[in-house]
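Re: [ENG-882] Designed sequences occasionally contain unexpected residues at chain ends

Forwarding the minimal case from QA. Structure tokens:
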């Protein structure tokens, strides 16, 4: 992302002038300029990894339902996700993790392969072409235009939607809520071991946060993991060695699927999910944090968008669905992550899963739930900009309500954009042209998603 030259805090973020004695690495990552430390970044990176570690097990399991070889999907998740997250840290210098999006892997396995009866190589071919389209629009800076046109009330709404989504993920993993066909279907067992593990993790995290501990999320996760392992019967699943069998889907994508007119709508939906999902996450994760400059923009945004688009292309070539900036990055940001060093730490830990596969099945994903719910609450009650009015509250409430109803950030984004544009028109002001176009495209993408079901 290109951030215009500015003064004050914007200039400080773009061209930091650290005090004498700070090394080249410090200057490159703006570590001192952003008020962070090595220790804080490392702990924050570990916190992000803890929060997203479940994807290494869950993504291959879901994609396996669509026929993609489990070992290949595992390798793609850990290797491509790890390398892309490291690239995010080194190039974009932002603390965002990159991993397969849960909404995309479910669509590939259950809709594209399960319902539409495409083969898994054809499905990966669709992911490839959607990734190529993402690279093209990122190079043309179209996503930057949309992001820079988003008004403050929409930025706050997207942050709230991301917070609600993170909280729902945590509640679902803890079995406190049930889902069916991508929708909430009822309450779960609030007294079972996963729920108790979440209570313990959340309690420890809240206590440590109140005491000012930066490692609150990590320590809370360790506490809940220890409890869960002690009282629960851990069911181990199949996790392959990261090297053995990893090439089963290498370049097996069917690029000829682009000649099938039926596939175009699927490619468009995948593209829309990635395009708008990434915008919502980048804006939502950075809202009300020092990652934004005084103009509400995020230095390094263009590079971040290119990284997630490139990861999607690489993932399709190795056996995974689309990669996105992962919402669980909010855990690390809450823990103090302000630079790309945290992303490098997360990426290295994610990549190390290739060699720790047999151990991962014994690490309960329920250990992450306390941190996820903690961060979700913090994002939902985050202090809003001065001057917030009824429009701000209405747009934020709409985004949160749609997120809860659909479990889809892109649909929440569509609703928030529509409400915002309508409110601006009613107030006899002119919405930015990019808002009109984005709202219409979002509506079209939601309609296409329902038509493809």
């Amino acid at each position: 992302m290109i951030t215009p030259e500015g003064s004050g805090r914007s200039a400080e973020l773009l061209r930091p002038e650290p005090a004498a004695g700070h090394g080249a690495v410090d200057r490159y990552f703006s570590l001192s300029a952003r008020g962070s430390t090595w220790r804080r970044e490392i702990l924050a990176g570990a916190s992000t990894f803890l929060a997203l570690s479940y994807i290494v097990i869950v993504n291959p399991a879901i994609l396996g339902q669509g026929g993609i070889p489990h070992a290949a999907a595992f390798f793609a998740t850990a290797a491509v996700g790890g390398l892309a997250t490291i690239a995010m840290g080194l190039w974009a210098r932002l603390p965002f993790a990159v991993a397969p999006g849960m909404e995309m892997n479910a669509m590939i396995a259950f809709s594209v392969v399960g319902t539409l009866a495409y083969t898994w190589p054809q499905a990966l071919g669709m992911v490839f072409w959607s990734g190529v389209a993402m690279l093209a629009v990122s190079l043309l800076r179209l996503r930057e235009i949309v992001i820079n046109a988003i008004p403050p009330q929409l930025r706050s709404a997207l942050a709230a939607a991301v917070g609600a989504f993170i909280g729902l993920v945590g509640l679902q993993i803890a079995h406190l809520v049930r889902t069916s066909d991508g929708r909430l279907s009822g309450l779960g067992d609030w007294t079972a071991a996963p729920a108790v593990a979440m209570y313990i993790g959340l309690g420890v995290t809240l206590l440590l946060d109140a005491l000012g501990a930066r490692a609150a999320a990590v320590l809370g996760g360790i506490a809940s993991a220890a409890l869960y392992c002690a009282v629960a019967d851990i069911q181990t699943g199949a996790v392959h060695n990261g090297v053995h069998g990893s090439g089963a889907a290498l370049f097996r994508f069917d690029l000829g699927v682009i000649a099938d007119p039926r596939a175009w709508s699927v490619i468009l939906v995948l593209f829309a999910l990635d395009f708008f999902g990434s915008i919502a996450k980048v804006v939502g994760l950075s809202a009300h944090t020092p990652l934004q400059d005084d103009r509400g923009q995020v230095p390094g945004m263009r590079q971040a968008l290119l990284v997630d688009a490139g990861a999607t292309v690489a993932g399709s070539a190795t056996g995974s669905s689309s990669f996105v900036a992962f919402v669980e990055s909010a855990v690390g940001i809450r823990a103090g992550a302000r630079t790309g060093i945290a992303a490098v730490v997360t990426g290295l830990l994610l990549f190390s899963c290739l060699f720790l596969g047999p151990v991962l099945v014994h690490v309960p994903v329920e250990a992450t739930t306390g941190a996820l719910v903690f961060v979700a609450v913090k994002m939902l009650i985050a202090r809003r900009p001065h001057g917030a009015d009824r429009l701000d509250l209405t747009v934020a409430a709409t985004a949160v309500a749609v997120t809860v109803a659909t479990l889809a950030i892109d649909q929440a984004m569509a609703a928030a954009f529509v409400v915002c544009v309508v409110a601006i028109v009613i107030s006899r002001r002119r919405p930015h042209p990019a808002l009109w176009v984005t709202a219409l495209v979002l509506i079209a993408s939601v309609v296409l998603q329902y038509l493809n079901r």
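QA comment: On inspection the terminal residues look reasonable. The beta strands are 98-100, 177-180, 183-187, 323-325. Proposing we downgrade this to a documentation issue.
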